[in-house]
């Protein structure tokens, strides 16, 4: 009996490894093809200034489509891209695509919009990343302040000179730096003081819990207060309901992002979104 179940568990184990290997191979093939075929796409999600109600910036979210043109979520393909090393090529593609979009929006009603891209910590270990980004902006005749980068707190390793040096170069040049999903990692608020950052993005789980749980509400309030006292602007992610919108306004958050205002959308839907906003 014991032997049999032992056999079974080995069987499960190997098939699990097989599944993971297959998933890895399938996803890397998909990403390689997408890079060659040019089928990656950036979607954009507005960030709303809560005082003025205006859209100041938007987050670029990468989309990859499978052979049936179904979107594959980034939470699936980004980890594979990081593991396989493809993240550098993909990251370069994202930077180029953001520059092209900023150029296309130049001299339109969206001309003042900043685009914030997501960076993987792996990309920051490239000691030429900052100069590559600044060169691309320059090449497209764009100002560094038209671009922002978002990094989750765990991606920047405490004391990593190369990573922090890259962030410093970007920030000194005027690129906006945000810490993404803030509160879910293990970095202390003290560590934050040593990082060259401009904004904190509070992870959406806090907002969702804050609606029912007073200690989550207290944590959110504390993050906002400390963020402000460090001179940072605070963005709250995942606003889905008008109750949540009211809450983030009373907590004096600066900016908000979420399905309530807009879902991530292709670039060509952005002008109509801007028009629909102005009607409010
Ligand atoms: P993130 O940077 O924290 O992006 C926010 C995610 O929350 C996005 O998911 C967005 O669609 C989703 N979201 C926005 N508003 C709401 C809301 O009101 N409710 C809920 N439930 N979700 C909301 P998405 O687009 O699936 O991206 C997932 C993650 O993938 C991103 O999290 C980011 O970490 C990563 N990612 C996306 N694009 C890139 C990229 O170009 N490079 C890298 N390295 N990572 C990326
Ligand atoms: Mg982000
Ligand atoms: Mg986030
Ligand atoms: Mg995230």
From TrEMBL:
Signal peptide: none annotated. The lineage of its organism: Bacteria, Pseudomonadati, Pseudomonadota, Gammaproteobacteria, Pseudomonadales. This is Bifunctional diguanylate cyclase/phosphodiesterase. It comes from the Bacteria. Residues 24-278 form the EAL domain.
């Amino acid at each position: 009996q014991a032997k049999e179940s032992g056999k079974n568990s080995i069987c499960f184990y190997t098939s699990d490894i097989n599944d993971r290997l297959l998933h890895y191979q399938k996803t890397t093939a998909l990403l390689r093809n997408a890079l060659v075929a040019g089928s990656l796409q950036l979607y954009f999600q507005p960030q709303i200034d809560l005082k003025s109600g205006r859209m100041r910036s938007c987050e670029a979210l990468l989309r990859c489509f499978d052979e049936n043109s179904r979107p594959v979520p980034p939470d699936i393909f980004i980890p594979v891209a990081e593991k396989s090393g493809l993240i550098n090529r993909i990251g370069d593609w994202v930077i180029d695509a953001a520059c092209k979009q900023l150029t296309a929006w130049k001299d339109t009603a969206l001309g003042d919009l900043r685009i914030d891209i997501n960076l993987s910590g792996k990309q920051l270990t490239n000691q030429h990343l900052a100069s590559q980004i600044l060169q691309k902006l320059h090449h497209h005749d764009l100002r560094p302040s038209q671009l922002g980068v978002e990094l989750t707190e765990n991606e920047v390793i405490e004391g990593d000179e190369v990573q922090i040096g890259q962030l410093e170069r970007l920030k000194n040049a005027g690129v906006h730096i945000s810490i993404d999903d803030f509160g879910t990692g293990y970095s202390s608020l003290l560590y934050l003081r040593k990082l060259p950052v401009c904004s904190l993005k509070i992870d959406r789980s806090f907002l969702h819990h804050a609606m029912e749980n007073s200690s989550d509400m207290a944590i959110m309030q504390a993050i906002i207060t400390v963020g402000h006292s460090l001179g940072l602007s605070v963005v709250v992610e995942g606003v889905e309901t008008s109750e949540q919108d009211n809450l983030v306004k009373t907590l004096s958050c600066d900016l908000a992002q979420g399905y309530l205002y807009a879902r991530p959308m292709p670039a060509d839907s952005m002008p109509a979104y801007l028009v629909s906003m102005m009607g409010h």
